[in-house]
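Posted in: Structural Biology > Protein-Ligand Complexes

Title: Requesting predicted complex, magnesium ion in pocket

I'd be grateful if someone could produce the 3D structure tokens for the following input. Sequence and ligand are given below.
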Amino acid sequence: MSPQPKLHLLFHRDEIDATVRKLAAQIKQDYHHKSPLLIGILKGSFMFMADLIRHLDFPLEVDFIRLSSYGSGRESSGRVKVVQGLRSSIKGRHILIIEDIVDTGTTAAFLIDYLQKKKPASLRLCALTDKPSRRQVPVTIDFLGFTVPDKFIVGYGIDWDEQFRYLPDICTLEGDL
Ligand code: IMP
Ligand code: MG
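-- Reply #1 --
Done. Output follows.
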């Protein structure tokens, strides 16, 4: 059996919870009268999105899009494709993208461009985590939870090769991956 990589706690579930509540309060201030459409990028955002929406007690709609950029390893392929598209119409709506992590920025920049062409009334990005040291494409994050170091993170919906999404805390993965 190959050795399992080691996990180190980065953000405990209580810290995540406090941050999600803080983000929800900011989002509520800007969107409570706008019936926004929240678009989660699958799969990494599912846990964050569910927790966030539990604190958004005003009318909104939810949709998901599945994009592929990462293969099975750690490095982005740099190309993004829509693997599973949206059902909602975007035109004239207030759109808030929900992402787990902005790394090189390729995925978020692609989706912003893709949605902008559909003429939303507004379009903004909420990311739970940001790894600015890795940025290759400039991206504005309008609502940000945590800035993370240049390490691979997992947990709270975020995976390494489909593993570790179930962890309630966010951890860094150490060792040879
Ligand atoms: P980007 O296109 O390079 O910004 O990467 C965005 C996507 O890559 C994210 O939505 C994640 O799914 C994945 N990703 C980037 N960094 C990490 C990480 O540290 N852990 C797990 N997934 C990551
Ligand atoms: Mg993702």
